[in-house]
Amino acid sequence: MNLNEPVIRGALESTLDLQRKAYLAHPVPSLAERRADLRTLQRFVRDHKEALCAAISADYGHRSTHETLLGEVFPVLDGIDHVIKQLRRWMRPQRRSVDLRNFFGARNRVIPQPLGVVGVIVPWNFPLNLSLVPLSYIFAAGNRAMVKMSENSRHLAALLIEKMPAYFPPEKLQFFDETGGVGIEFSKLPFDHLLFTGSGQTGRAVMAAAAANLCPVTLELGGKAPAIVCEDFPLRTAAERILFVKCLNAGQICTTVDHAWLPQAKIAEFVQLAKEIVPQRYPSLASKDYTSIIDQRSFERLLAALDDARERGARLIPLLDGPAFDAATRKIAPHIVLDAPADSILMQREIFGPILPLRGYTELRTAVDAINAGPRPLAIYPFSHDGAQVQHLLDHVMSGGVSVNDALFHVGQHDLPFGGVGASGMGHYHGREGFETFSKLRPVFYQARFSALKFMAPPYGRFANALLGFMTK
Questions:
Q1: Could you say which of 42, 80, 352, 437 has the lowest number of CB atoms within 10 Å?
Q2: Which residues constitute the catalytic centre (predicted)?
Q3: Mind listing the domains of the chain with CATH numbers?
Q4: pLDDT for position 264
């Protein structure tokens, strides 16, 4: 046993106890209180925008400031604006119909109420986005939260732990760093809901730990999300959009394009386009706009996957002039990989890096069958202007989400739910679904002053028989 486990467990349990007592003392915050919490969260980001960008870059070794602003700061600020605008409507009790044969004048309502204390386990790839966007829905639903950051987000975690108490008291929100063993103990806590974003392997362990407390979980995992470029779609446009997403954050995004399916006859042209497009965006590995791989283990894993593909006969095509990688900065040039064997590491595991295998088809069914033979992905990206063809792909390939004629952008739509299916996750958040995930949609039946059940009590007589006959005819 880790000698720190009792200390870690004690600190976590005391915070949970503090937050649960605060919830019980004030279980249903008003609309005004929830909006105030959301604006405070927004104010924190605005007050510390530069420091947040610097901390995340330090955790990566180098992370493009523009990518942090685009992928983390903006979605948090803009998303909170959306939640604030919608919150009154989301909080309103829902009217439901009453079976009038049974109850005359009775009313049914569904009342969204706070669950209590929500736990959030955050990955390293978009640590600000994936902590504060969930918090916006957790606070909108009236809850309190404990947030566990990744071991690869040490600078950001330190900043959050230092600065956030000036904005929220610990009985409302508290952040925890991963100092060894924290994640294990965190997932064992009897939260009212637990949100985990990360790998499928860790997600299984989190779900198993939560099951001991019958704690409901939302799992946001990953998978091999494919782009499917159809014959009718302009190839340059497809290349520009796919490569933008694949190079963003150096491919370290759970919803990025893992690999791309293309008409067999168009693969060579796509490669030539990629050789033009990528150097225009990133002249060299030293570009300040190009992000490093998060740590040495991930850097070595990606290089090993490239070596494995090469040794098995695949063709590796770096898309930048100069060295294919820089060990000092942990940067790997964007690569296209052709003819990677089906059993290679690149084709078997989620890539999570700036490497794009291309696969060819002569019939679209080949791509559909191959995708369906694997675990259901977090997203698919059909490229076609043929509505019937797009609908065919939507009908025949199941995934967590879809962006048509682009990649990734479904995640940034504030009014769409986000979540996986099967091996890529379970549950949703974002949009109204985020509010409902962290709420108890509580059914309430209001009996009328007069109830027909008055005549239904034993001993059953003629009237009961007549009424039951009417109700069940």
A1: 42
A2: 220
A3: 5-221+425-442 (3.40.605.10), 226-419 (3.40.309.10)
A4: 98
Please give the full DSSP string across 246-298, using - where no structure is assigned.
HHGGGG--TTS--EEEEEGGGHHHHHHHHHHHHHHH-SSTT-TTSPPPSSHHH
Looking at 311-400, which runs of residues are DSSP E strands?
Answer: 315-318, 325-326, 331-332, 335-338, 355-361, 379-383
pLDDT of residue 383: 98
Question: What letter does residue 407 receive in the DSSP assignment?
Answer: S
Residue 311 annotated in active site: no
Q: At residue 452, does pLDDT exceed 80?
A: no
Give the three-class secondary structure for 361: strand
Residues contacting 171, CB < 8 A, separation 6+: 18, 19, 21, 22, 144
Q: Do the Cβ atoms of 88 and 112 come closer than 8 Å?
A: no
In sequence order, the β-bridge partners of residue 261 are 228, 359
**Which of 50, 220, 276, 311 is flagged as catalytic?**
220
Residue 165 carries which DSSP code?
G
Close Cβ partners of 110 (under 8 Å, ≥ 6 residues apart): 93, 94, 96, 441, 442, 443, 444
Indicate the average pLDDT of the chain: 94
With a cut of 50, say whether residue 3 has pLDDT above it: no
Q: What's the rounded Cα separation, in Å, for the pair 229 and 223?
A: 19
3-class DSSP state of 427: coil
Structure tokens at 112: 């969204």
- pLDDT exceeds cutoff 90 at 466: no
Category of 64 on φ-ψ map: left (φ > 0), alpha (ψ -120 to 50) or beta:
beta
**Strand ranges in 104-185 using DSSP code E only, listed in sequence order:** 107-114, 117-121, 144-148, 173-176
Residue 263 scores a pLDDT above 80 = yes
279: tokens are 């150097």
- H/E segment holding residue 432: helix 431-437
- Under a CB-based contact definition with an 8 Å cutoff, are residues 336 and 271 in contact? yes
User: Is the pTM above the cut of 0.85?
Assistant: yes
